[in-house]
Amino acid sequence: MDTQLAHSFVLSEIWDIPYGRGRRFGSNLNPVLDTILGGWGLGGILTWTTGRPFNITVNGDPANSGQVDRANLVGDPYAVPGGQRVAQWFNTAAFQANQPYTFGNLGRNSMIGPGFFNLDSSLMKEATLLKVKEQPINIQFRWEFFNILNHPNFGFPGSTFGTPTFGQLTNASNGRKMQVGLKVIF
User: Fold this and answer.
1) Dihedral sign from CA coordinates of 54, 70, 68, 85
2) Residues 6+ apart with CB under 8 A from 74
3) How far is CA 77 from the centre of its chain?
4) pLDDT at 1
5) Is the torsion defined by CA of 82, 86, 111, 46 positive or negative?
6) pLDDT of the residue at 66
7) How far is the C-alpha of 120 from the C-alpha of 118, rounded, in Å?
8) DSSP code per residue over 145-170
C-alpha cells in the first residue's frame, strides 16, 4: 500500500472587498467613513485530505527481533460493527498478535487514519498612516481565525494491539483559535 495521501485539496483565496474610495461601491465616501468602512479584505485557506497510512503493531516483541512487530491480519479491518466512530475506528477483532519467534503478516502502513478538514480565515484592512517623502507608510489590521468551523481533526487511532486504546481515537488537533495583529508596512 502506498504511504502517500490518496487525495489532497487545498484552496487559497483573497478577496479585496470592492467598497470604499476608488472602488466599485462607496467610491464617494467621505474620508472619515472610508477609513472605517473601506479597504477591507477577506482571505481563507481550505484544506481537505484523506487519511494518512499507519501501522498496526503488537505490544512487546514476540518475534524476539529487537524491533517493533506488526500484527497478524485475520479479518476485514474496515468491517466495523455500527460504522467507524471515535470509540472504534477500525475492526479490532481483525487482528491478533504474531506467534512467538515469527513476524506478523500485516504489511507496512496498511491502515488509513482519519481524514483532515480545516478552514482558516482572515479579515484584513490596510490604510495609509502617513507619507514620508512621497513614500506611504501603511498600517494593516488582521483578524485571523484558525479552524474557524471548529471541526474535529483526529490523530491516528490507537495502533498497538493489546493496549486499552487499541482502535480508539484519543487525540485531535486544536479547536478554533483566533488572533489579532497590527503591522506597519513601509
Assistant:
1) positive
2) 94, 95, 96
3) 25
4) 41
5) positive
6) 84
7) 7
8) EESTT----B-PPB-EETSTTBT---
For residues 156 and 108, give the distance between their C-alpha atoms in angstroms, rounded to a whole number.
Answer: 15
CB-based contacts of 64: which residues, under 8 Å, 6+ apart?
Answer: 100, 101
- Rg of the chain over CA atoms, in angstroms? 26
Residue type at position 113 = G
Q: Which residue has the cell 487514519?
A: 113
What is 19-86 written as a DSSP string? BSTTSSBSTT--HHHHHHHSSEEEEEEEEEE-PPEE--EESS-TT-SSSPPBPEE-S-TT--TT--BT
Q: How far apart are the first and last CA of the chain?
A: 52
State pLDDT tens for residues 129-178: 888 888 999 999 999 999 999 999 999 999 999 999 999 999 999 999 99
Residue 183, C-alpha cell as written in the block: 503591522
The identity of residue 163, as a single letter, is: T
CB distance 39 to 20 below 8 Å: yes
